[in-house]
Each structure stands twice: as C-alpha cells, then as structure tokens.
Design a protein that fits this description.
The complex is a heterodimer.
Chain A (H helix, E strand, L loop, with lengths): L21 H9 L4 H26 L8 H12 L9 H5 L1 H6 L8 H18 L7 H17 L1 E2 H21 L4 H30 L3 E2 L9 H27 L4 H15 L3 H15 L8 H26 L3 H9 L4 H31 L14 H7 L9 H28 L6
Chain B lengths: L1 H19 L3 H8 L2 E6 L7 E2 L5 E2 L1 H14 L5 E6 L4 H6 L5 E2 L7 H5 L3 E3 L4 E3 L1 E6 L13 E6 L3 H12 L4 E6 L2 H9 L5 E5 H9 L7 E3 L7 E3 L2 E3 L3 H20 L6 H6 L4 H7 L5 H5 L5 H9 L2 H8 L29
Parallel strand pairs in B: 1-4, 1-5, 9-10, 9-11
Antiparallel strand pairs in B: 2-3, 6-14, 7-13, 8-11, 8-12
Chain lengths: 432, 338
C-alpha cells in the first residue's frame, strides 16, 4: 500500500532575493522607487554635495582667537594660503559678553546669571508634575525676585508689590462667604488700595531698617540674549493665563465680557507686532505727562504679552471647541460651579488638545523678540550684530554673527518643541 | 457728558505733550542726562565697543553738547535709532537731539518739522564698481544693476541722476550696509551706491579692496547735520553754536591739549570770547561762560574729532576734502562769535 507523502515539519524560511533585503531594498524603496524618485534623489544629493564642498573649507578654516577681522584674515591667509577664506568665530569669542548681556555692567554679571538659574528652578515645578507642589509658591514669587536681581533697586519694593497680592487674597477669603462676585471686587480694591497708598511708605520704612539694595541698572543697558530671554519668558508666562481668560471670555454668555474679549482679540490680532511696539515706544510718550519715564522694556513686555495673549486665546478656543458637549453637561450634573468645572474638567482637556498650537505660539513669540530692534533695544540678531559691525575691528563680518544667533535660537526653540512632545506623550489618555 | 470728558482729557494730553518740548534745556538739566539719538552702529561715525562705551564722529558731537550743557561729556544716554525710527524718536521726545548722519533736506525740515542745526559733515553720493567691470565713469553705467538702500535720499538721487543722463538701470533694494556689501560682493549688482564716506569705509572692510574702484563722479549734495525738534529755538541755538564752537576752535588753533594755555591769552579777543574769558556768550544761550571751553576740552576741536574717528590714519581713511576749513579749500565755516 502506497502512502501519500505528507510533510511533517515546516520548511526553513529562505533568504529573500538580493534585491528584497537589506540596504539594497531600503535604497530601492526609499530613494529609487520610480524614475521621478530617482531623479529627485540624484539632484538632491548633488545639491548637498555642492553645499558641503562650498561651505566646508570655510568652516574648516575657522579662526577662534583674534582681535580684529583683519587679523583673522591674516591668520587664514598664513595658514591656508593667500586665496583661502575662513570663518572668523573670533568675533563671537571677543564680543561674547555683549551677545549674552548687552551693555549690562560687567561687575554685575552674577545677577542675571543667578536670576537665570533661579528662573530654571522656578520653571521646573511648572513643567514637571512629579516635583513637590509646594515649590509653586516659590515660582509665584519668582517674578519679583527676578526683577530685583536684574534691575536692582531695593528688594522691599518687590516685597511691597507682592504684599498687594497677599492683601487681595486676604480680602477675598474674608468676603468669599458672603458673595464670590463681591469678594473679587473687594479683593481688587484691597490690592489697588495697598499699591496706591501703602506700598510706597511701607517700602520706605522697611528700606530704612535694612536697605537690601542692589545697584540700579537702567533698561537701556540690557541687550543680547539676556533681553531676548527676559522678553520671551515674560511673554510666554503671562500670555498663557491671559489667553485662557480671553478664550473663556469669548465663549462667555455675558454680552459685555464676550464683546470685550472679541474686540480685544480681533484688534490685537489685526495689527502687526511692530505696530504695537512702535505704539509702546513712541506714541505713549506723546500722551504720558512729561517727565514720566515708564520703563521701555516693561512697555515692550506688556505689548508682547498682549499680542501673544490674543493668539493664545484663539488657540485655546480651538481646544475648547473640540470638547464634547457631554463634558459640560456632566460637570453641571455633578453640581460644579463654573470655575470648578473649568478647572477640573474643561481646561485640562482643552489645554491638552491645544498643546501643539500653544507651543507653536511660544516659539513664534520667542523668535519675535528680535523685533525689539525697531524700538532701539539691542536684540542679539540685529541690534548687537550691527553694534559689533560698527566697530572698526569687526566692520565687515557678515555670516558668523547670524549663524551664531541662529544656532542659539534653534537650541531654545527645538528644546521647547521637544518638551511639548514629551508633554503630549505624558498626557496621552486615549486608546488610539 | 462722558464723551466730552474724554475729549477734554485727550486735548489736555496733547497740550501737555506740545508744551513739554518747549524747554528742552530745562528738561535735560533736570534729568542730568542728554538723550542723544545715534546710529545703531556705523563704523567711524558711532558704535559701542565691547564695554558699551560709544565713540565715533557723530557720538563726539553728542558728548560736546553734554559737556557744554551739563559739564560732563559722559552724561549722555545713547539711543540707537534706525533709518526708519530716527525722526519719530526725535519728534516724540524720546531723544533731545539726533547726531546720526542725516541729510539736511527741504522736506525733512519743513514737512517733518525738524531743525537741522549746522552741517558737521559734507558728503556726496558716489558709486563703487568691481575693477573687472572695466568702468571708469558713472556715465558708463547704462543698463547696470545697482544696489541702493531703501528709504534714504540715496535712492532719489540715483533715480534723478539716471533720468538726467537718459540712462536706464535696475535697482536692487537693500536694507543695510552690511547686506549691501554681501550682495555687491556676491555679484548681485554691478555697482553699489551710497555716500562717498560710506563707500570708502565699506571698501576698507573688503578682503581684497584693490579689486574695487570708487568712480570719480559725486552725484549729490549730502550735508549731514545734527537735528533737533522745530519750535525750541534756544535748544537749537545751543546745539548749533556748540558745532560752530568746535569748528571755530580748529580755525583758531585751539585743541583739547592747548586749551588751558589758550584760555589765558587775553590779548586775542576772538579766542577770549569763544573760551569765555571775555564777554558772556554762554549766558545768552542759557549756559555759563565756559560752555564752549568744556565742549572743546572734552572732545577736541573739529579737526581733532575728524582725525581721531574717520580721518586718514583710521581704518575708514577719509580725506578732509569738502570738510576742510573754509580757508583751506573746504566748506567748514563757523559763524562769527560776536
């Protein structure tokens, strides 16, 4: 009896043909999939090679230590031959302090340095939730501390300003039992009253007891990345709450608040940032009484915050619009008040949805800080660079300062972008 | 009613704003600091060094005014201004005066309500071309592409010149000198045009300056002068006569080094009036007797300023040319101190 042949074990898998595996497959599928694809690959490669060939000698011939552009060129010519050209990074090396601090007094560089480190510490609890929540108190007090360190003056002025918030909070908690709306009004009045009538004498009295004074540094001494970071971080930190309030205002049922929010957002968004900066720097001095000096950097920060806040409001409104109606109804069904519902249910979801948009706004804002050159503040990209170029030694450098500033800006913006991706991953709760 | 109140407030603010600028001298004295608008950075004319100390040709005039008015050439806050913001900055009161290589023109004086006090540098617009182009006169630039800064008198002069000579050209708009240099060196334009002083300064920064020539034609008049707001004659006089004092000092041979001996020479009436040992010219300006002496001692006379900042021995390397004294073939002519 014959028995049909049955295979009892699996054949071992055979190695795919040469063209279907390894690097060859990858190349064929990704770079040479079709005629067009191949052509684009070849052209792209040619451009990359050409760029590298063009730029490489320039980077390879970099000079790091020299006192002037002429000396740089001498060094390049001596080392690499009379026709060679090379990057002169010595300009960054020589003017490093100016790029970082502008014209901040040299013996006080420790103050912005310390302020920067403390700022990182203040941002940490805001950025990473696993840190102890008590640190948030320090974060809240940091703006006053940072201002005092960078600008100087007496520390008690800052304490007095913080005192206004404390007075407002005390008033709020005392009156809250009677009526929440009344409490807000009383709190605002209490804070205003404190700032208008009590802050100055209290500052004077405390300063008389223990001075705690740092040398005052006027705003026109600030410049470079110090200025960019101050304007950028202040704009970022203050524009987010402003944006949240405006976005809620725009969706509010109260006509007055809604109209105001719509007007504010549309007017600010309808005007370029440069116009706002011009208004802050020139128009205001026409209207303020003569002799009033309202710090220019402060004016710029306010304008940048307002500008960014309007965009932020629309980004967050997008997040609010994406939340299903059921969430609002659920909050109502649980008997939560408006603010409880916003805080516990609506905002966490809306903000999570808006993260990419919010971070994009932040990045745009940080890059926009270079526009302060138009109101005579020395930003690192153009202001400081022009000043450096105006000196006899460095007149004629072109690419190096731009490449340097660009690299620093890239580090900051890329960092923000990576952080937003981390945050998105961390907050991901859906089941996609 | 409410509307009326608001309008009243606006009107009051406007009134305050206009009266605020009447007494610039008082404002400056009360503040203790002169706010002076300068270029963000122009080699030789004004730029900060690594420590933030400003120096340069225009900067010296700010310091001279500060020395005359406040008695201290360091009591100056330099406000960097761009080509677009300079006049707004002055009109809004952000700065008390501008010393920022600005050309004195009819429109600027009458339309923008500015007072140009006295030219401190006579410039003129020229052209620079690569030697390889083989051009030796501006009249041979028919059909050329020309790099020119926007928003300046340069642009208008260029158009006028080519129209007048019935030639065609293609303008390449640039924003700053540094950008223009890059475009010109990269061959984006055949010729580069700006003030002759600027051309010389720019060429000095090239890697191979000998490969470029500055054409002989000067196609415009560019009298550069410090500027103040119109309507404050006293302040305009102070700035104007400070400039004249520096020019007069050169003519009379007063330098920052010999000024102490010179002020003791009582037998020279012109000198005595200028330096305040005779008459009280300063009093008529609202200043003290030694205003001019302090200005000259602080920054030197006109010739000294020129040689130290943009003269033949500096990297900028400009010849005196039109800016020599009137009795040496130039246009520098101080009005008499009587």
């Amino acid at each position: 009896m014959t028995q049909a042949y049955f295979r009892t074990d699996m054949l071992p898998p055979r190695v795919p043909p040469r063209g279907q595996r390894g690097a060859l497959k990858w190349l064929r599928e990704n770079l040479f999939a079709s005629v067009t694809n191949s052509a684009i690959t070849v052209i792209g490669l040619a451009i990359v090679v050409w760029l590298v060939v063009q730029a490489f000698p320039w980077f390879a011939h970099s000079v790091w230590n020299a006192k002037s552009l002429a000396e740089c060129r001498d060094i390049v010519h001596q080392t690499w031959g009379p026709d060679a050209s090379g990057a002169c990074w010595a300009v960054i090396h020589e003017r490093w302090n100016q790029y970082l601090y502008g014209f901040y007094p040299m013996d006080a560089y420790w103050r912005p340095n310390l302020a920067f480190l403390l700022m990182l510490a203040a941002l940490a609890p805001l950025l990473f939730t696993h840190l102890p929540r008590q640190l948030l108190w320090y974060s809240a007090a940091y703006p006053a501390l940072g201002y005092w360190l960078v600008w100087g003056g007496t520390a008690w002025a800052m304490v007095a300003i913080l005192g206004g918030f404390v007075a407002g909070w005390l008033a709020f908690t005392l009156v809250k039992r009677i009526s929440a709306g009344l409490a807000v009004a009383v709190a605002v009045l209490a804070a205003m009253g404190w700032w208008l009538f009590l802050a100055a004498p209290v500052t004077g009295a405390l300063a008389a007891v223990a001075p705690l004074t740092l040398d005052f540094v006027p705003s026109d001494r600030l410049g470079g990345f110090l200025l960019s970071i101050i304007v950028g971080i202040c704009g970022i930190v203050f524009s987010l709450p402003l944006g949240i309030l405006l976005s809620l205002g725009r969706r509010s049922d109260m006509p007055l608040i809604r109209t105001f929010s719509v007007f504010f957002i549309e007017i600010i968004r309808g005007v370029p940032l440069i116009t706002l900066l011009f208004t802050a720097s020139f128009l205001l001095s026409y209207f303020l009484p003569p002799g009033t000096t309202f710090d220019l950097v402060l004016r710029v920060i306010i304008m940048v915050t307002i500008f960014s806040g309007a965009y932020m409001a629309e980004t967050i409104r997008g997040g609010l619009a994406a939340i299903p109606r059921g969430q609002y109804e659920a909050a109502d069904a649980l008997g939560l008040t408006y603010w409880q519902a916003q805080r516990l249910i609506i905002m966490p979801q809306a903000l999570k949805i808006s993260i990419p948009g919010i971070v994009s706004s932040f990045i745009a804002l940080f890059k926009d800080t270079t526009l302060v050159i138009f109101v005579a503040l020395l930003d690192p990209l153009k202001g400081i660079t022009d000043a450096v170029r105006g000196s006899a030694e460095w007149n004629g450098v072109y690419w190096e300062p731009y490449i340097f500033s660009g690299a620093i800006f890239f580090i900051f913006c890329f960092g923000m972008s990576r952080y937003s991706m981390y945050l998105e991953r961390k907050l991901k709760t859906d089941h996609r | 009613m409410k509307k009326k109140l608001i309008w009243a407030a606006v009107a009051a603010a406007g009134l305050v704003a206009t009266t605020a600028h009447a007494g610039t001298l008082e404002d400056v004295k009360a503040r203790g600091v002169l706010n002076c608008g300068v270029n963000v950075g122009l080699a030789g004319f004004g730029a900060p060094d690594a420590n933030g100390n400003w120096s340069g040709f225009d900067v010296s005039f700010c310091r001279a005014v500060a020395a005359a008015v406040l008695g201290d050439p360091t009591k100056v806050k330099f406000v960097p201004t761009t080509g677009e913001t300079r006049f707004t900055s002055l009109a809004s009161g952000e700065v008390d005066m501008l010393a920022r290589n600005s050309t004195w023109t009819f429109k600027r004086e009458n339309d923008l309500k500015l007072t140009f006090v006295a030219p401190n540098y006579y410039d003129g617009q020229g052209f620079m071309v690569p030697k390889a182009l083989g051009v030796s006169s501006a009249k041979e630039l028919e059909g050329a592409t020309i790099c020119v800064q926007t928003g300046t008198t340069t642009e208008l002069n260029l158009a006028d010149y080519f129209k007048q000579h019935n030639m065609k050209y293609t303008p390449v708009s640039i924003k700053t000198d540094a950008e223009g240099k890059q475009q010109f060196l990269a061959g984006a334009c055949d010729a580069y045009t700006t003030d002759a002083s600027g051309l010389a300064a720019l060429r000095a920064t090239f890697e191979k300056p000998a490969d470029y020539v500055i054409l002989p034609e000067i196609i415009s008049k560019e009298p550069l002068a410090p500027v103040v707001r119109k309507g404050d004659d006293q302040w305009a006089s102070i700035v104007r006569w400070t400039v004249f004092a520096l020019i007069e000092a050169e003519e009379l041979g007063v330098t920052s080094k010999n000024i102490d001996e010179m002020s003791k020479m009582t037998d020279h009436p012109e000198l005595a009036r200028l330096l305040g040992s005779q008459d009280d010219l300063g009093g008529e300006l609202g200043l003290d007797k030694e205003w001019a002496k302090r200005a000259i001692a602080a920054v030197g006379n006109y010739g000294e300023i020129f040689e130290a900042t943009i003269g033949a021995n500096t990297p900028i390397g400009l010849a005196r040319g039109l800016n020599a004294q009137w009795n040496k073939g130039g246009l520098m002519y101080a009005m008499p101190f009587h």
